[in-house]
């Protein structure tokens, strides 16, 4: 997967905590049709059976559209599906542990919040990309909105990894961060709760 990192530019779509699998698949496919560079399955309240059902169906969609499919947190689910990769947060396993479990060919993403030292460590441990945020208040994730915009240019100057920005993103708010060098913009509610999913996705694509 490392040879595909040059393609990682645009919308990094992250799923919401929806138990309605049919609705989840319908909206996701609308977004994939318009153009997504990565899809992350994230469901913090689902049980194991629902996670397996939803992740399996989403992976099939991603394969159809040629979009890499990433699992948030659950290494066992990633391995069971042979998904394209795993995203780890600050309280999950380390990048080094994930890389050791998954091998060199899988994607391993790392949440770095507003911490350049975390990003440097993730790079040294074999991360495929670094994610910073939150930059703006989110209706989905609860975190301090303390990440400075300047971290984008600082990280791009010192760490040779694709950079994702996250936290309350819409096309307008993401624009200055993309102009500073962000490679991908992660979004949840601004796509999944949009009146017109295709228009919302196109707004992000237009940034690039």
Cα Rg: 16 Å
Mean pLDDT over the residues: 93
Tell me the helix content.
Answer: 40-55%
Strand order of the largest sheet: 1-2-3-4-5-6-7-8
Number of helices: 9
CATH architectural grouping: Alpha-Beta Barrel
Number of domains: 1
Give the uncertain stretches in residue-range form. none
Structural class, from secondary structure content?
alpha/beta
Largest sheet: 8 strands, parallel, barrel
| CATH superfamily grouping | Aldolase class I
Large-scale geometry: globular
CATH C-level: Alpha Beta
As a percent range, the share of strand residues is 15-25%
CATH domain topology = TIM Barrel
Span between termini:
22 Å
Q: Tell me the series of helices and strands, N- to C-terminal.
A: EHEHEHEHEHEHEHEHH
Q: Tally the beta strands.
A: 8
Oligomer: single chain
Q: What do these coordinates show?
A:
The chain has 208 residues and is an alpha/beta fold. It has one domain: Alpha-Beta Barrel (TIM Barrel), CATH 3.20.20. Helices cover 42% and strands 17% of the residues. It is built from 9 helices and 8 strands. It has an 8-stranded parallel beta barrel with strand order 1-2-3-4-5-6-7-8, surrounded by 7 helices. Helix 4 links the parallel strand 4 and strand 5. Helix 1 packs parallel to helix 2 and helix 1 packs across helix 9. The chain is globular and about 40 Å long.
Features:
single chain; 208 residues; alpha/beta; TIM Barrel; eight-stranded parallel β-barrel; 42% helix
List the helices and strands and how they pair.
Layout: E1 10-14, H1 21-34, E2 38-41, H2 48-65, E3 69-72, H3 75-81, E4 85-88, H4 95-102, E5 107-113, H5 116-124, E6 129-132, H6 150-158, E7 163-165, H7 171-179, E8 184-187, H8 189-192, H9 197-205
Helix pairs in contact: 1-2, 1-9
């Amino acid at each position: 997967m490392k040879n595909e990192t040059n393609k990682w530019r645009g919308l990094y779509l992250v799923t919401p905590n929806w138990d309605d699998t049919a609705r989840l698949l319908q909206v996701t496919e609308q977004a994939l049709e318009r153009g997504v560079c990565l899809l992350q399955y994230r469901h913090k309240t689902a049980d194991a059976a629902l996670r397996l059902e939803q992740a399996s169906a989403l992976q099939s969609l991603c394969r159809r559209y040629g979009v890499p499919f990433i699992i948030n947190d659950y290494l066992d689910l990633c391995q069971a599906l042979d998904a394209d990769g795993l995203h780890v947060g600050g309280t999950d396993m380390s990048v080094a542990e994930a890389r050791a479990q998954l091998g060199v060919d899988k994607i391993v993403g790392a949440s770095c919040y507003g911490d350049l030292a975390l990003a440097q460590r993730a790079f040294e441990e074999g991360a495929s990309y670094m994610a910073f945020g939150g930059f703006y208040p989110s209706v989905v994730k609860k975190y301090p909105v303390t990440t400075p915009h300047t971290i984008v240019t600082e990280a791009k100057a010192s760490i040779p990894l694709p950079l994702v920005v996250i936290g309350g993103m819409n096309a307008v708010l993401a624009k200055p961060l993309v102009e500073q060098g962000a490679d991908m913009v992660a979004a949840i509610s601004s796509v999944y709760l949009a009146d017109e999913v295709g228009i919302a996705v196109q707004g992000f694509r237009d940034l690039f």
